[in-house]
Amino acid sequence: MGEFIRVEHLSHVFHAGEKDVHRALSDVSLSIAEGEFLAILGTNGSGKSTLARHFNALLMPTEGKCTVAGLDTRETQELWRIRELVSMVFQNPDNQIIAAVVEDDVAFGPENLGIEPQEIRARVREALAAVGMERYRTAAPHLLSGGQKQRVAIAGALAMKTRCLVLDEPTAMLDPLGRKEVLETVQRLHREKGITVICITHFMEEAAAADRVILMEEGRIAAEGSPREVFQDVGGMKARGLAVPLAVELAALLREAGVSLPADLLTDKELVKALCPSC
Ligand code: ADP
């Protein structure tokens, strides 16, 4: 897999030059591969959103550099190309939908690019099908559930032919069913369309679905690895005020109680299998 996003020695200072200077990111370096699914974890205020907003040039580095598909986010003439390649989905579904009908909302981005109406219709159809929302084509967005609204927001990004979804706590305001719908949709787009996914989340089960996890702490990357690697440090995660997936936590307690279990258990399914091979 080739590199898609490259962050080099990136620092971000809010209100630079004014009195209440706040350094939100310090010397962060990171490479994200095309087609990767990366989860970003960390407590509130650790710099997750600030980092993510550099990926589609909503924020520019105060120091260092961020490139997307080789395009430098500081080059203003590359801005629209970068925003076509990388789409953000935010926490509150109600802030992202602007049109009164689902298909008009999905068409909004491509319309602004000046794409032919026939091509827009095809893109909207395809995008809604990809998120399982084609039946709601003519629905009023405000009548949809939170999970459905987030899927419409994702369809809007797909209609722009995005290559990368940056999701900033996309399920934080959803009920468990909505969370499941959105996670399954994102996983499918990653698997079937090779879309690069960067997901900020507080839900460890969502992070467990990623290829790689980075853990932010006070504006720096404090830990990095596969979910299996990062979550095995149950004590370290808890000391940072973070949870681990239930199966990992339970497995650690069972090990302490003398039960012999494989070292890198991650999912409920794996724990059940280890405890009961014939289940
Ligand atoms: P997270 O997403 O991990 O909760 P953020 O990236 O939102 O963290 O914030 C990192 C730090 O930067 C926090 O201390 C936050 O208060 C500060 N911050 C974020 N946005 C701004 C802003 N627009 N102006 C000033 N400080 C900000």
Task: Tell the overall outline.
Answer: globular
Unreliable spans are none
Give the cofactors and ligands: adenosine-5'-diphosphate
Overall radius of gyration: 20 Å
Question: Biggest sheet, open or closed, and with what strands and sense?
Answer: 6 strands, mixed
Structural class: alpha/beta
Strand content: 15-25%
Could you give the order of strands across the largest sheet? 6-7-8-3-9-10
Overall pLDDT level: 94
Oligomer: single chain
SSE ordering: EEEHEEHEHHHEHEHEEHHHH
- Terminal CA distance reads 37 Å
Helix content: 25-40%
Strand count: 10
If helices are DSSP runs of H or I spanning 4 or more residues, what is the number of helices?
A: 11
Describe the structure.
The chain is globular, with a radius of gyration of 20 Å. The chain has a six-stranded mixed beta sheet with strand order 6-7-8-3-9-10. The protein has a four-stranded antiparallel beta sheet with strand order 2-1-4-5, with no helix packed on it. Helix content is 38%, strand content 23%. α6 (176-193) links the parallel β7 and β8. The chain is an alpha/beta fold. The longest helix has 18 residues, at 176-193. It contains eleven helices and ten strands. The protein has helices at 48-52, 79-85, 102-112, 117-130, 146-159, 176-193, 204-208, 227-232, 234-239, 246-256, 268-275; strands spanning 3-14, 22-33, 37-41, 63-68, 71-72, 86-89, 164-168, 196-200, 212-217, 220-225. α5 packs parallel to α6 (176-193). The protein binds adenosine-5'-diphosphate.
